[in-house]
Design goal:
about 425 residues; Coagulation Factor XIII, Chain A, domain 1; mainly beta; six-stranded mixed beta sheet
């Protein structure tokens, strides 16, 4: 959530990002934030003008301030979710194609800077050029601000310049910045907390379990894979009979506490799990014959990403295509099945510090679910390569050299192949 300076902060951050890029690519160019009518009609100045031409409510969070959400406790003021639409117009000498060069610089820069990070926003607010943004708290907003190109029809574009701006058209592109959440100034009244959570008139009903987080035990940021011991954190997790449901797979936990459950994926059979996003749920089984009570209480569903692991790796049919270039088939044995409709990509990173090469190759469509896959690679420079596989967005892990006496200490060192 942000204060009234959020909109100006987004504009200033875009200006600062584009100024740094275009002045490096086209000498003497500047990024401005003037209305189109404020740009000189004489010899065009070299640069880009960033004009906020529309502010719209964000449709996905249009009900962000609804009563059920506010009742959960976090927002204490009313909130408005907004998207900002910018027209970026390029100026310069057409004879030297300066507007087109600036446009290319803008598109390239915003392709890399699609997210206005908290560090980038804070550095803008601390810039002496923008002293009026010192009190902006946009950097503390939980939702990240993303910047995306917007397609505008030729008819709408001509109307914008001829009707709204009333100036001759110049080469332009539109971008949308979303999502900016601005909070009101008045604090909402808060009622007293609820003291009793028993269901109305029915015999005492156990509180439902609630999952807040799932992670590898004692390693919060470790990718999850088969064989890991996992920890579920939340509340009301303890019961006489507790089951862990991952999709259609049921796993019994090894240790259950009120706020933490420990279980292992090592006993999960590979046909039951596949790489990608999984749905995890805690189920409490109840021994009750009452018609008023169900025999199971379920928690909320929490998604997590299950990453594949490369068990074995080899290269077959290695051939020399031309000098220093090779083609081959990389064979990978995984710890889970790859199913027919899953998207599989292999990434090769040359294991060197001198101008390393990087390649990616897609797996052709599969005819059946398999755990040993063969991916053809072509025109790869001869050398040693670290290998990763990504299945439906879930990527295998690289091992790190943890020997302090090794020359490659703290480097990624496997899985690795020689081409």
């Amino acid at each position: 959530m942000s204060n009234y300076l959020a909109i100006a902060t987004v504009t200033a951050t875009l200006q600062r990002v584009l100024q740094a890029a275009i002045q490096q690519d086209i000498e003497g160019s500047r990024a401005t934030t003037l209305p189109p009518s404020g740009i000189s009609t004489g010899t065009p100045e070299v640069g880009v003008n960033i004009f906020l031409y529309q502010v719209a409510s964000n449709p996905s969070l249009g009900n962000y301030d609804s009563t059920p959400i506010r009742a959960k406790g976090s927002p204490s003021t009313r909130l408005v979710a907004l998207d900002l639409y910018y027209m970026m117009s390029c100026y310069g000498s057409d004879a030297e194609l300066q507007p087109q060069r600036i446009l290319g610089s803008i598109i390239s820069t915003l392709a890399d800077k699609r997210i206005l990070t908290a560090e980038l926003i804070r550095s803008t607010c601390g810039d002496s050029t923008f002293p009026f943004l010192a009190d902006s708290n946009l950097a503390d907003q939980v939702q990240q601000v993303t910047v995306w190109p917007v397609d505008i029809s030729l008819e709408d574009l001509s109307k914008a310049w001829s009707v709204f701006y009333q100036v001759p058209y110049v080469l332009s592109v539109a971008y949308r910045a979303c999502l900016i959440i601005i909070e009101g100034r008045e604090t909402l009244p808060r009622s007293l907390p609820v003291r009793d959570i028993s269901s109305a008139g029915i015999a005492p009903f156990p509180a439902s379990p609630y999952i807040e987080q799932v992670m590898v035990q004692d390693r919060r940021f470790e990718p999850i894979s088969i064989g890991n011991v996992l920890t579920i954190r939340g509340k009301n997790l303890q019961s006489q009979i507790v089951e862990i449901h991952i999709n259609d797979l049921v796993i019994m936990p090894t240790e259950v506490k009120d706020r933490e459950i420990t279980f292992s994926l090592s006993n999960a059979t590979s046909p039951m799990l596949q790489s990608g996003v999984q749905s995890l749920q805690v189920v409490h089984r109840l021994d009750s014959t009452s018609p008023l009570m169900t025999n199971a209480i379920t928690s909320n569903v929490l998604p997590f990403v299950l990453c594949p692991t490369i068990l074995n790796l080899s290269v077959r049919y290695l051939e020399e295509v031309e000098d220093h270039l090779r083609s081959a088939i990389v064979v990978l044995q995984l710890d889970m099945l790859v199913r027919e409709k899953q998207q599989v990509v292999i990434a090769l990173n040359e294991w060197t510090t001198e101008n390393p090469s990087v390649y990616t190759f897609d797996l052709p469509p599969l005819l059946s679910a398999i755990s040993i896959i063969e991916i053809p690679i072509t025109n790869v420079k001869a050398g040693e390569y670290l290998v990763r596989i990504r299945i439906d967005g879930a990527e295998s892990k690289l091992d790190v050299d943890d020997d302090p006496d090794s020359l490659t200490y703290n480097w990624y060192n496997s899985p690795k192949i020689t081409i």
